[in-house]
Amino acid sequence: MSVPILIEPTNGQFSATLAGAPELRCIRPSRSEAIAALQKELAAKIEAGELLDLELDSLGVSGLAGRFKDDPTLREIREQIYSDRDADRQQ
């Protein structure tokens, strides 16, 4: 799993924060230590079941992909389009 984090200097140290969740923040003397501490904290939350992957439906036109694959009306429309195309090619 990959999650976006924000790294910023904070009073001579570095802060690593999970994007969108300011309560998940680790401050350490170096950038790499802050990242490692946040990674450890996130791993503990995942293991405890507090942080999960949540799949969302796609929005817009891409969210419709495959939704009507078994619709007989769509099949009829497609067959008519192919028939019209083939008729145009023969002319």
Task: Give an overview of the whole structure.
Helices cover 40% and strands 22% of the residues. The protein is α+β, with helices and mostly antiparallel strands and 91 residues long. It starts with a strand and ends with a helix.
- What's the SSE pattern? EEEHH
Mean pLDDT: 88
Main-sheet strand order equals 1-2-3
Helicity range: 25-40%
Radius of gyration: 26 Å
The rounded distance between the terminal residues' Cα atoms is 55 Å
Shape: elongated
**Low-pLDDT segments:** none
Total number of beta strands:
3
Tell me about the largest β-sheet: 3 strands, antiparallel
| SS class | alpha+beta
Tally of separate helices: 2
Binned strand content: 15-25%
Task: Considering the chains and any ligands shown, give keywords for the structure.
91 residues; alpha+beta; 2 helices; 40% helix; elongated
Question: Any chance you could write out the topology, listing elements then pairs?
Answer:
Layout (H helix, E strand, L loop, with lengths): L4 E6 L2 E6 L2 E8 L2 H17 L24 H19 L1
Antiparallel strand pairs: 1-2, 2-3
Question: Concise description?
Answer:
This protein is α+β, with helices and mostly antiparallel strands and about 90 residues long.
